[in-house]
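RECORD TYPE: inverse folding
INPUT: structure tokens
STRUCTURE:
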């Protein structure tokens, strides 16, 4: 497990010394001088209404205002984001096709899938980190007596027949987090994949599912209503909107910092002037308190980084995630 204490703090990540010549090589610089002079297509590799889609729409609204052209969302869900990511990778590298690429796309897919239609390390120009959000350990209040994470661990270990944990799909951070948690705590845990939190939450509230370690954004309302117990968040520090919920380390589970994150990307070879223009606009967006507030209301934090730092972050995550995939036993064709 790699040391992640140097991860994101306060919405910005300092520049890293990792060069990215293949991803950021300049091309068509002359054509990029007046970019954008027409609408920019934004491919979101996930369905409408999910965290990635909602946060991409907030950013596109801001980019449209700052760069003077429409950033038009086109949802291309399917195959855990692979369909949309392939569309970005194979688009013309002229700056007019961009989109959000999550941890699943850039740092998990290559370990999960036997074959991918794109290379996560070579086929994209990384512009900046876009957002981060933690997972949260949640269980239905009606069916789960424990009030702390350590009590929950003891209770789960003692349950005859073990426990079940839900996720939005095989290979998601919710799946990998649940598998790692059960492995480390010696809990007999059974993974149950769903399409998303909209199906996981009712399953827990009906008593058909024991717990989840899923994206916080989806669970804030049911936590606030008292229908879900939140035992800990997987971020390095307590989350601003839920200051009473401890981190995993504070709850007695060290070395369990696992956040979902997203970078803004285009196809490899996108002109460096375009990358720089979008990056500068994203820096302004992340510095806007009103935008940060909108992101926090969804359970996320708006980020900015240099392109090299975004590339370094994706690379830094891969050894840990490869180990998590191995522990989970997940494999997709």
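DESIGNED SEQUENCE:
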């Amino acid at each position: 497990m790699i040391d992640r204490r140097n991860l994101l703090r306060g919405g910005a990540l300092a520049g890293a010394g990792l060069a990215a010549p293949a991803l950021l090589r300049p091309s068509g610089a002359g054509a990029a001088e007046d970019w954008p002079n027409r609408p920019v297509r934004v491919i979101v590799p996930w369905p409408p209404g999910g965290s990635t889609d909602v946060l991409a729409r907030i950013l596109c609204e801001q980019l449209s205002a700052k760069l003077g052209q429409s950033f038009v969302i086109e949802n291309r869900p399917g195959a855990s984001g692979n369909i949309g990511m392939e569309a970005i990778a194979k688009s013309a590298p002229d700056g007019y096709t961009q989109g959000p690429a999550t941890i699943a796309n850039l740092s998990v897919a290559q370990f999960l899938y036997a074959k991918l239609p794109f290379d996560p390390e070579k086929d994209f120009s990384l512009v900046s980190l876009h957002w981060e959000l933690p997972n949260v350990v949640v269980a239905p209040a009606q069916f789960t007596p424990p009030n702390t994470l350590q009590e929950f661990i003891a209770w789960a270990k003692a349950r005859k027949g073990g426990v079940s944990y839900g996720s939005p799909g095989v290979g998601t951070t919710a799946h990998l987090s649940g598998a790692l948690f059960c492995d480390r705590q010696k809990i007999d845990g059974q993974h149950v994949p769903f399409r998303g939190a909209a199906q996981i939450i009712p399953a827990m509230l009906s008593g058909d599912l024991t717990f989840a370690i899923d994206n916080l954004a989806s669970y804030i309302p049911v936590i606030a209503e008292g229908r879900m117990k939140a035992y800990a968040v997987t971020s390095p520090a307590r989350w601003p909107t839920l200051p009473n919920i401890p981190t995993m380390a504070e709850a007695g589970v060290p070395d369990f910092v696992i956040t979902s994150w997203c970078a803004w990307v285009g196809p490899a070879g996108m002109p460096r002037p375009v990358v720089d223009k979008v990056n500068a606009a994203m820096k302004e967006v992340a510095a806007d308190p009103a935008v940060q507030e909108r992101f926090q209301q969804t359970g996320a934090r708006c980020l900015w980084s240099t392109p090299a730092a975004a590339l370094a972050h994706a690379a830094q995550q891969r050894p840990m995630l490869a180990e998590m995939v191995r522990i989970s036993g997940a494999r997709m064709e």
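NOTES: The two ends are 26 Å apart (CA to CA).
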